[in-house]
Every structure is written in structure tokens, then in C-alpha cells.
Amino acid sequence: MKKKILSILLSCCTAWLYVPAQTKMATQLDHLLADAIPAEDPGVAVLIAQKGKVVYEAAFGSANLELRTPLTPNMVFRIGSVTKQFTAAGILQLLEQGKISLQDSIQQYLPDFPTKRATITIENLLTHTSSLTDYTSIDSHDPFVERWDLTPGFLVDHFKQTPLEFTPGSRYGYSNSNYVLLARIIEKVTGRSYHDYITEKVIKAAGLTNTRFAAEKNIVPLRVTGYTRDNGFFENCYYQTISLGYGCGDLLSTVGDLYQWNNALLAGKVLQPATLEKAYTPYRLSDGKYSSYGYGWFIDQQEGKKCIHHEGQTSGFIAMEKYFPTEDIYLSILTNVKSGEDKTDFSDKRFALFQQITGLALGTPSFSAIKMSNRLLDSYTGTYQSGKQVITIGNKKGVLFCDASMEGNFKLVPVGTDKFIIQNIKPVVTFEFVKDSAGNVVEFISTQQASFDWLKLVAAADNTVTGPVADPLKHYAGKYQLPSMSNTFITITVNNNKLLFSTTTPLPDAALLPAGPDKFKYRTPGYDFRFEFIRQANGEVQSLRVVQGAVHCPKIR
User: Fold this and answer.
1) Ramachandran angles phi, psi of 78, nearest 5°
2) Low-confidence residues in the chain, pLDDT < 50
3) E strand or H helix at 529, and its extent?
4) Whose CA is closest to 211, among 74, 17, 71, 52?
5) CB count, 10 Å around CB of 329?
6) Which of 335, 403, 419, 546 is deepest in the core (most CB within 10 A)?
7) In angstroms, rounded to a whole number, what is the distance separating the alpha carbons of residues 164 and 76?
8) What is the DSSP secondary-structure string of 534-554?
9) Distance CA 175, CA 511 (A)
């Protein structure tokens, strides 16, 4: 206990605070960050503003491990894909000037780029609906290509011959290639280099003094060193040429400048209000559905509130910036460590920390771990079953673990009487244990509100359709795949005027119950899902969306 208190005191002494911890939120953040970020570890800089006023600005940890330099919030970090906002702003300025149209084909400005038998518009690039393969995912014959000093032309040549992944405008598919092409279009239209144009017309127009394009040879005052943690300990991050981030991830900035950037946008210093509003609007796909991305920004819900945001990850750095327009709350978080291969829970803890910071900034209830005795923890242990899935709950040295045969091993964090969460999974998974009248645990209910989109691959070969009323169901039949898992399939067939569900997952086969136009329910003991079939503009069923709710898991021993 004394060592713990001493650690907190030492961390507080080495942290540079811009605003004295006078408010409850500031006090909570001070303790949270001091406890999570040791002074000798790579650090985190945080800024939170509400209604135009900075209410918290602090930094914890180290800017340079070798020199043992304490991190301060005015220090300069790489911000990765947050750069895309600046590129988008440059393109939208050209739109306002009448020099381009968002519906222009990209070949109008880049005639050497293959047409691929489809029209890709500037708007498709802005909204990640072009279907272009992300050049960072394409293998190269040279294993050290990331160390080269790459030209923009080389980057385009690296991906321009790859086939399209879907019809442009029909789906969202995040790809850095989109913003490389946008940067090239800026150069073609303005006759200037992308970096020069953005620096003068976007960065300076916003009044930013600590934001600039990164370059290895340039001296940048207060530039922070980036690290990785890939074998249970910190290392200097793998060298990756900054030129790899052309147009999509090569900016440096500070938490303060990112806040000033948000203010400048809202004040109309960079774009006209109507243009910014469009940038902050989710793109409507060709099937009428909306993605969660506009022109350089994600737009979705966080902590139950509308959030306009972006994240950037690059070698040695992670950046996050979020704006909640209804609450007029802004926060930026920069850290100088990116863990890609570490087998511990270090990376998960960092991302959980960022989410806790968001919750405190919004004043929303957050799950706080509580202490439980070993005797109480033991009462929850046992084997539970739902359908074909068997889950074992065990107590390992005072920590409850859930061993799911198909999913892996997860730590359960106690947050209330009979209530636990799997903390580092979003949306949060809650486990609530149910007791009988004698106080014995008889089951737990796991809850996770989430949706999964399954792409239709082929029509089912074993459809059996009987009776004239069954014909409409035939459109739903087929084989669907979860894109992120190559061996995970759902098969929908028709028999006796009913849709039948089967899958390669442990879920039991069952008939689907009608629940509305293109909507069905899947109900078996222990499971309750909602299925929604998504159609293309021509009415053909294109994909299947599964919405997951609560799962009851009775205790079997």
C-alpha cells in the first residue's frame, strides 16, 4: 500500500499540470492518469474543453525514455490519420472556389489512373467508399520498403492496378489510398505541392502554430520520441519513413493545436459553415443506408452521445480527438507509444484508459472496479451453458476469468453486486449473475449491444420452396460471410414457407420468425438475435445484419 501511494506521489511530481486540479473531474483525471502512467513510461497528453474553455490540460509520463524527459502538454506528436481532416479541408476549399465538383471522376485530374470499369468520384475518396485497396495492406517484394524515401507517384503506382473490392459508393471501406489520391488532386488543381498548399491555406488559416508536416531531417522543438512495446518491454519504434503517410498521416501537432483546429473550423476560418456541416454528415450509400464517415471525420455515438471524431495510429504514436457538439465538449489525447505485437494487456489497458478519460470528460457513469473477497468470487465459479456454447468461470488468485471454448479467455472485472464486465471489449460486455432464493448462483446473463454485417456470397444450393407465398422468402436464401472472419458463415435456406438458419458458429440451427419488412428474429434457448436483410438499389438482397442482445447462460455444474 505504501509503495502504491509513493508511486502516485512521484508520478504527480513529474507531471506538468496546466490547470490546477480544482474540479471533481480534474481530480479524478489526475488520480486516474498518475496511477496508469508511471513517470518512466511513454506518456499521454490530454486536453479537455467545454463551451469554449479549457477545463483540463495535463501530461503524464516521459517524452524520451533515454533522456528521462518528462512529458508536457505543449509537446509535439505525430497524429497519424487525423491528418485526413486537413486534406479533406483542402479539397473542400477547392469545392467552395468552384475549381472541382465532388461528383467529378478522379480521372479528370489523374488521367493515368485506371478506370477499372467504374466511376470513382472525389466524394468516394473523401468518404472511403471508393473500394480502392489500402496500399498499406499490399505486400511488396522488398521487406524494407517502409524504410525508403517514397514519392507520391510510387505510392499511387503501388495500388493503382489492384482490383476494386466492391462497387464504388455501395459500401464503406477505410483506405489510406483515398487520401493519397486527394493530395495528388490538390496538387493537380492548384499547381502547388500538397504540403505547401495545406500549410498556407489550411494550417495557417486556422491559426495553428505547432502543427506542421513531419520530416526526418527537420529540427522540431519539443518533438516527442515514439516507442513500441512488443515483447513485454519498451523499445524504440520500428523506423518507418514519414513519406509513407503522404496525404493521410504525416502531420505533427499538439493537444492545444488540435483544439484550436476544432475551434477554427467551427468559427468558419477554414470552411464555410454549410460545407463543414456536410463534412460532419455521414455519407449515404447507394442502398440508402448511412455509413459512419463524412468528409474526413467519423460521426457516430459514444457514451450515448453524438460524436465527431478521428483516430490516428502510426509508428510509435496514437492520436485521438473527439467533439461532442450537443454538449460542446472537446478532447484530444496524444500518446507516444503504439503496441502492435505485445502479448500482455498493455495495449488494451491504454485504450481502456482513453475511454475512461472520455467518460469523465462527459460526466457519464463509468464502470469502476470494486474489491471482492475470494469467497465471494468463488461463488460465481462453475460451468455454464447456452445452446452449444460452454463457458467456464474460474477464480485465479483473486481474479475472475471467463473461459469461452470458441472465443478465448477473458478477465471479468467486478463493478457491482453480482455484476462484472469484460472491460476492454467495445461495446462493453456485462455479466450479471442470478441467484435463487437460497442465494446460490444459478445462471448469468451476458449482454452486449452490437451489430455484425454479413456479406452475401452465393445463393443457397439447397433451397426448397413450396407454395406461392414462399416465393418472397427465396430472395433471402444464400450463404453469408462475416468479412473479418474468413471461415465464419451463415446459411439461410427456405423450407415449408419458413426461413431456416444454420451457421459454422456454435449457434444451433433454427427457423427465423418474421419481425417486419426484411427483419426476422432468431430465438433458441439462451439466444435472442435480430436479423435484418440489406437490399441493393435494385432490390436484390446484398447482406445480412445481425444485432446481438442478451444471452442467458444457466449454470450446469
Assistant:
1) -75, 140
2) 1-22, 450, 460-470
3) strand 527-535
4) 74
5) 20
6) 335
7) 37
8) EE-TTS-EEEEEEEEEEEEEE
9) 38
C-alpha cell at position 125: 475518396
Distance CA 547, CA 261 (A): 37
Query: pTM surpassing 0.70?
Result: no
Q: Which of 124, 95, 126, 121 is nearest to 109 (CA)?
A: 121
For 362-369, the CB contacts below 8 A with 24+ separation are 362/303, 362/305, 362/324, 362/327, 362/329, 363/25, 364/303, 364/304, 364/305, 367/413, 367/415, 367/421, 367/423, 367/428, 368/415, 369/413, 369/414, 369/415
Q: What's the grid cell of residue 451?
A: 451489430
Q: Residue 269 and residue 261: Cα distance in Å, rounded?
A: 10
What element of type H or E holds 253? strand 251-253
Question: What burial class does residue 48 get, using C-beta atoms within 10 Å of its C-beta: 0-12 exposed, 13-18 middle, 19+ buried?
Answer: buried
Q: What pLDDT does residue 15 have?
A: 34
Q: Tens digit of pLDDT for each residue in 99-108?
A: 999 999 999 9
Peptide bond into 427 cis (omega under 30): yes
Residue with cell 413450396: 466
Sign of the C-alpha dihedral, residues 111, 117, 120, 124? negative
Give CA–CA dist 211/78, Å, rounded: 10
